[in-house]
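Dear colleague,

As promised, here are the two records you asked about, laid out in our usual form so they can be pasted straight into your sheet.

NAME FIELD: protein one
SEQUENCE, THEN STRUCTURE:
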Amino acid sequence: MNVKVYSTPTCPYCKLVKEYLTEKKLAFTDIDVAANPQAANEMVKLSGQMGVPVIDIDGQVIVGWNKGALEEALGMKQKA
């Protein structure tokens, strides 16, 4: 599984996403779009959004802190 988190150092929701992934012992690549304009452009092309966090899980894009969507994309959510 390939997980990328497009984030900035000052974003509280980015911190929540990264803490969640770390807690679940899932490897991810943290991409600081504040320090990398090329990555910021890549993030906008991928998501159509300027805001962070943007999470790319094997091509499935999630914008913002959305625990339910993360669990679903990671295959952790139980089916009702």
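NAME FIELD: protein two
SEQUENCE, THEN STRUCTURE:
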Amino acid sequence: MKNKFRQHIEKTTSLTDEEFDFVFSHFKRKQIDKKQCIIKKGKPVENVYWVLKGLMKASYLDLNGKQHIIQFAMEDWWITDYQAFINKEKATIDVSCLETSEVLVLSFSDREKMCSESQKMANFFRIKSNASNAALQKRVLTLLSSNSEERYNELLSEHPKLLQRVPKHLIASYLGLSRETLSRLSVKKRIDVKI
């Protein structure tokens, strides 16, 4: 587990053994049961989570009771309500487990302490934040400008494992599609692959 986390960090910045031990000392390992909610709308958000094993989702429930999937997080991904975490506000979304998950938990105060004492980790989180912002912009633009088939094909191309692990109604919500449209697209894709 420590090796996997170190590999994740070292995709961005290299650490000595001593530096990694310092970084790792700020994290807590936690197992979270399937369907358990770790961030609840209206509650304070104190932690960010790195997924070691499992699958999580961030979602928003609108005034009509419709669930909108904002993000999935599987192995090697980070998740939280970033707006609430960074600004010390109450959560506007829920984060829950789609599978029993094992995560490393980092509190806001520990993250700030770590970054103030380690330029490498401050740089790591800056790079991660920039990548996250770019991915979010791409997702919004895709939702605004792409048709349903293009959105489905992009998800299939970039994250094929998600389609195998996530229930179809949640994939449909993430793509802004009806369940029927998603079923039609997945059938069409299977036919295209066979031809």
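A couple of things worth noting about protein two: Residues 146-195 form one domain. The longest strand covers residues 67-74.

Best,
R.
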